[in-house]
Amino acid sequence: MIALVILAAGESRRMGTPKQLLTFGGKTLIRHSALVALESLCSPAIAVLGANQEKIVPEIAHLTLNDKLLHVLNNPDWQEGMASSIRLSINHLVEVMGKNLEAIVFMLCDQPFVDAALINELVTVYRRTRSPLVVSTYENGVNGVPALFSSAIFPELLQLNGDTGARKIIMQFSEKMLSVPFPKGNIDLDTPEAYQLFLEQYK
After folding, report:
1. CA–CA separation, 18 vs 29, rounded Å?
2. Domains of the chain and CATH, by start
3. Are 107 and 4 a contacting pair, CB within 8 Å?
4. Whole-number pLDDT of residue 144
5. Which of 26, 103, 176, 193 could form a disulfide bond with 150, CB atoms 3.0-4.6 angstroms apart?
6. Element containing residue 143 per DSSP (H, E)
7. How far apart are alpha carbons 102 and 183 in whole angstroms?
8. Structural contact between residues 88 and 75, judged by C-beta atoms closer than 8 angstroms
9. Smallest Cα–Cα separation from 148: which of 135, 165, 137, 163?
10. CA-CA-CA-CA torsion for 138, 79, 133, 159, nearest 10 degrees?
11. Mean pLDDT, the chain cut into blocks of 10 residues (203 residues total)
């Protein structure tokens, strides 16, 4: 089975307000991400929360689609950075699923153009090739998330620390990875100015 993890535990310090609750297309970013996860081929689907959890949970609590329920995992160590959410989710899924866990797709909640078709393409490429790593390639040529990591790479992911996300592993396994195009993946919603510019451009 292939699980999906939404990494959404950060405090959005530069934004000044929880990024997870910014709206686009009539939905908050966290709710959009959750619905994409549930619509995809991946199961189970988990959102890792941390900072501002009490404000964010109501957006996705008891959310179901296609008979799938979104699970929420609390990261008490969210201040350590994204790596702590990656480690927590892997350990949780391995404990729950054991050897049934083939791979995990990691995605962020602040990529508004992620859709289920993109996630499913990552899964399809993996199932066809058994590549240990399938990433998204942005318009600017950067490889990033959403990305699928097979269980063969879990040991390396579990060594991550601080605010080092999966990009370090993507670089490490660049010779073995495959990719799918995601032109709008590099849209960055880290500041109020960037968010306003984004809304004006894509309203």
Report:
1. 10
2. 2-202 (3.90.550.10)
3. yes
4. 95
5. 103
6. strand 143-150
7. 27
8. yes
9. 135
10. 140
11. 97 88 95 98 98 95 92 96 96 96 97 97 98 97 96 96 85 93 92 91 84
